[in-house]
Design brief:
Largest interface: A-B, 116 and 116 residues
CATH superfamily of the largest domain in chain A: Bira Bifunctional Protein, Domain 2
Number of domains of chain A: 2
Number of strands of chain A: 16
Shape of chain A: globular
Structural class of chain A: alpha+beta
Number of helices of chain A: 18
Oligomer: homodimer
CATH architecture of the largest domain in chain A: 2-Layer Sandwich
Strand order of the largest sheet of chain A: 1-5-6-11-10-9-7-8
Radius of gyration of chain A: 30 Å
Chain lengths: 483, 483
């Protein structure tokens, strides 16, 4: 009759094999979050549009899925609104709710709405789908999961340290080799300040970010095109070419920010000479260096720890890392897989005024978000799933008919009692069909009982991989499957 | 600045304590489903409206949340459509997608769409939220979870048996005492046939269903009001007053359906006399009795099973049980909690043509659905959550400053390595504030290290319940918290 049904573009069905893998990913992240004292919350799929609109920029507003008001949604709406305001204005009249676009804004809303019940600092995690009306393409979906952890109400850099430990522990459990990149928004601000181009910070970062791909000369050409004066570009060169260990990079940056020069507001340090060229000094840039240094040193101190809790991943200070520049205010992180060519698989950072948008200013937060879909792709490509990930059936009892089934059911119950995922083929179909079912489902053991087994009180157990068959009691059957 | 933000009516935020309890419910159901060979799938929150519309009746169509098309949704829509077709017609023009209303229709769509990849019989489970634009009221939400398991592609009654075992096992694990009610749609059809009122089956069932509340006379009055002839009401009396054991009820029903009379299509049985009054005979009613009897007998045979796999719950044949009469075609189930006054907490049954609506006829299915929200209420009222449900922090390290924190971090890492959910208070706030945090979070152990502990290489561990304090090594600390 009808044509084959389908699902909206950009969305996905997850079958049993995919679900087992996805559950493994979510369960791993969940248990590490819990180990670090983070508490799970969930928020509704639908938020009021007043909560969502204006939080993701103009482009983001367009990507919100809006939900048509129920009932007579046009009541009280003057259709002439279309001529005046166009579709966005009409949408605002006929839609009160939208699907959540990320987990951060709903979290901010949650904190403000439940402020009286919460004890600060509040460490929450949240693993839920989000929806975006993006143009679907390879690896980009209209429905996908985010796995966020955030701490609000604490300025301490220990939070940054712990989030990096969490990142490291999660990828250690997955067996994915990663590099964690760290930077600090204050360093970027300091750089723009020092070269007198505070307003060009986005252009500068975008250009520097391309160094790997296009090379130094092309980066400098792009900076010039962006209207950065030659003198400023000249001053940027040590930053662009920055290399060496994290310690060396930090030393270079401290020097760049005038660590050895007097602050204009501070008394001249003893033994430091001061000339007209030397007055340039960036307090915020140096603050950024201090923050990064504290995080790196604290992690480093844990490195030789007997319980192997120091990071196993490499950590690299990367000044080209920017991440949503207008959002973050302190440390920012990003994780790259070492063995697979794929974008960032985790990111995060500190933002100083998350809840301000809902009228509760002054609450600092820091958080990370694991990209479950990309982690799924990496685990698939590297074939890193542990064998136990599957929650598929371990044992199938063949069904030869009513009497045989009745003989089988108590054994089936005993197997389940022992924790074996087991089933009986429900219909007394032909043996061949039942074995095809076991093969298609990749069930590793098949047990059968016909007249002779029933007389002997046994089952014939077949190992589907080796083909080996033997007569077993129910107890032996359980032991064989669990072995 | 702004007023306190809120969420759409009928939706809920779940905080950490609620999440721990909800996860316990979902995890329990999930693991029992897996034990019985059911495989998890997930489908998108959004389905095409063409998939959803017309599947839940006219009322259901109105309760679907529709998603406004993105971009210029009015392009090509003649605004005069409003005058012709009203808002439903306009909605159909500007909305292509809707939120899923249940898990059954998406499952049917999934089976048809993925028919080539599936091995039948297909045993799937699915635990996801659904959305309905219902009028919100106590215990009824616009977003709530369903926990469904279905088998498609098998007519065997063993599926019904196993679903009842699953129901029993889940409630046994929860510690909720329940009664499982069973009926069969064929018995209801048979009853209507026998009294010559096949078209009045809904009225009859609705009336009989009220017996408990309004009594026999009122039921009979209602039947008369519904236009059921006095003679038919008379014939119904043995059914309405049906009592006794399941076996007795089945015997009565068999008699009512003419089990001892000759079928009009069958040769007259020897020794049975045949008069004009005796020709009434319901093949379908007897088939329903056979089905119920097979399920009850098979369960009964498991009852004394050594591994306690027989049902612990009572099973009651209840002819007043109807459940979505037009949907089901065979056995139907419903579960009532014995110790809490609440509606049905689980239900299900067999339907013979689930996928027919998507052009794939002839596939029989049977399924159940646990009502997670009501189960949550029952567990709360009876206070049945196991202690281990909480995934909250077990140990807090007090933060006295940078040096003390540095001393603490390796011990914290060792605790987490040992599986203890632990945290350090991130800021070096006043001791009082940190202890208040531990109390508010109900953290059972607090560890602290000041100068003297650092000198001795120990921590002071405080049991927050007893107030007891003692000096411990890191290893002793781990043992104390895990004890």
């Amino acid at each position: 009759m009808a044509q084959k049904p389908s699902i909206p573009k950009g969305t996905r069905d997850f079958g049993p094999a995919e679900m087992a893998r996805r559950n493994y990913i979510f369960d791993t992240i969940r248990s590490v979050y819990a180990l670090y004292g983070f508490q799970q919350i969930e928020t509704p799929a639908m938020e009021n549009l007043s909560t969502l609109m204006g939080k993701y920029g103009e482009e983001g507003d367009k990507l919100l899925f809006k939900i048509l008001d129920s009932g007579d949604f046009m009541r009280g709406v003057d259709p002439s609104i279309l001529c005046e305001g166009g579709t966005p204005k009409l949408a605002a009249c006929i839609c009160e709710k939208g699907l959540r676009y990320d987990l951060t804004v709903p979290f901010a809303r949650y904190v403000v709405q439940h402020r009286e019940e919460l004890t600060l600092p509040f460490r929450r995690f949240q693993i839920q789908p989000v929806w975006r009306a993006d143009r679907p393409q390879k690896g980009r979906y209209r429905e996908f999961y985010q796995c966020d952890a955030d701490v609000v109400g604490s300025d301490s850099l220990l939070n940054e340290v712990e989030l990096m430990q969490i990142i490291d522990e999660v990828f250690r459990r997955f067996g994915i080799r990663v590099c964690i990149k760290i930077n600090n928004r204050k360093i970027l601000t300091g750089i723009a300040e020092m070269i007198g181009q505070a307003d060009k910070i986005v252009d500068i970062t975008v250009a520097i970010d391309k160094l790997d791909k296009i090379g130094l000369d092309a980066v400098n050409a792009e900076l010039a095109e962006d209207g950065i004066p030659a003198e400023a570009i000249e001053r940027l060169q040590p930053i662009i070419k920055l290399s060496g260990t994290n310690e060396e990079k930090l030393a270079t940056m401290r020097d760049f920010f005038g660590a050895n020069r007097p602050s204009p507001d501070l008394p001249v340090r003893e033994g430091v000479e001061c000339s007209a060229d030397d007055v340039q000094y960036s307090e915020i840039g140096l603050k950024g260096c201090d923050e990064v240094e504290f995080v790196l040193n604290t992690l480093h101190a844990l490195q030789p720890c007997a319980v192997a809790s120091g990071l196993s991943a490499g950590v690299e200070l990367d000044l080209t890392l920017a991440r949503g520049l207008n959002y973050y205010t302190g440390c920012i992180f990003e994780v790259k897989a070492l063995d697979v060519e794929i974008g960032s698989i985790t990111g995060g950072g500190r933002y100083d005024n998350l809840t301000g948008i809902f009228g509760m200013p002054g609450l600092s937060g820091v958080g990370i978000s694991f990209g479950a879909d990309r982690i799924y792709d990496v685990l698939n490509q590297l074939d890193l799933y542990p064998k136990e990930v599957s929650t598929a059936t371990q044992l199938l009892f063949v069904n030869f008919g009513e009497a045989e089934a009745a003989y089988t059911l108590p054994a089936l119950a005993a197997c389940r009692q022992a924790g074996i995922r087991a089933e009986i083929y429900p219909d007394a179909s032909k043996m061949k069909k039942q074995m095809q079912y076991a093969n298609a489902r990749a069930i590793p053991f098949v047990a059968l009982a016909g007249e002779s087994e029933m007389a002997a009180g046994t089952f014939t157990l077949k190992n589907m991989q080796t083909g080996e068959q033997r007569a077993v009691s129910t107890q032996q059957l359980i032991e064989a499957v669990l072995a």
